[in-house]
């Protein structure tokens, strides 16, 4: 994964990691791909193993495919939540939103939108749960195959992790003891603000003023442009 939002636990809070994972939070990604090219094991930086024509691919065809994919995953979401899709329970959950997965390891795509299309390049916004970078890279590949060509992922960004968004993250230049303490307090307030209804997906941002207190403490403005995804250590990708 090239860059992402990361959540850390310190000291005794590490014991809460299994509890946090059990929430099956929905994560938001931006996936960028290129049609007509397939790489070894679908890795981002790997040798090209196959090339194919892609001139027949249009944005309309891509969006039509995405609609079908969302429909299939919607059905899978109820199965992963162990809810009969024909039941009244399913109706009540659907009225509120999408069901939260209860099966461990379930990989579900809750939403997908085309954000950019300029052949051979395209970008998708994907909301998913239980995903891995391998799953997401293969997802891009399957999109290409389903459109009669092939595709490979060239960039992968996690824009949010459950209720945690870029505005809640610290940049490398902001790492200091004071800022870490302020950020820990913000994260605690975010966790306390979560709704109790675990059956329905609802990972909205906390109120703006919660974020504002930390942004002000860092002497930054919310409209400043910055890379909130860059990890604070170098990483190698193979």
Automatic annotation (TrEMBL):
A Pfam family recorded for this sequence: TruB_N
Any single GO BP term: pseudouridine synthesis
Residues in Pseudouridine synthase II N-terminal domain copies: 5-129
InterPro entries: PsdUridine_synth_cat_dom_sf (IPR020103), PsdUridine_synth_N (IPR002501), Trub2 (IPR039048)
Signal sequence annotation: none
Molecular function GO labels: pseudouridine synthase activity; RNA binding
Family per similarity comment: Belongs to the pseudouridine synthase TruB family.
Protein's UniProt name: Pseudouridine synthase II N-terminal domain-containing protein
Organism name: Necator americanus
């Amino acid at each position: 994964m090239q860059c992402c939002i990361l959540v850390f636990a310190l000291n005794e809070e590490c014991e809460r990691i299994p509890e946090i994972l059990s929430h099956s939070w929905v994560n938001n990604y931006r996936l960028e791909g290129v049609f007509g090219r397939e790489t070894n094991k679908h890795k981002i930086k790997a040798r090209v193993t196959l090339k194919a024509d892609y001139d027949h691919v249009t944005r309309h065809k891509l969006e039509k495919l995405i609609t079908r994919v969302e429909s299939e995953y919607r059905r899978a979401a109820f199965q992963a939540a162990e809810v009969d899709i024909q039941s009244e329970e399913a109706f009540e959950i659907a009225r509120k939103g999408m069901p939260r997965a209860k099966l461990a390891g379930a990989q579900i795509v809750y939403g997908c939108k085309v954000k950019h299309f300029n052949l051979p390049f395209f970008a998708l916004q994907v909301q998913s749960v239980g995903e891995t970078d391998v799953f997401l890279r293969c997802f891009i590949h399957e999109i290409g195959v389903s459109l009669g060509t092939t595709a490979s992922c060239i960039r992968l960004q996690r824009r949010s992790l459950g209720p945690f968004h870029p505005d809640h993250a610290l940049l490398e230049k902001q790492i200091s003891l004071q800022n870490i303490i302020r950020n820990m307090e913000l994260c605690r307030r975010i966790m306390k603000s979560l709704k109790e209804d675990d059956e329905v997906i609802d990972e909205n941002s906390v109120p703006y003023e919660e974020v504002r207190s930390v942004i002000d403490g860092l002497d930054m403005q919310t409209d400043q442009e910055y890379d909130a995804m860059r990890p604070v250590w170098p990483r190698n990708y193979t």
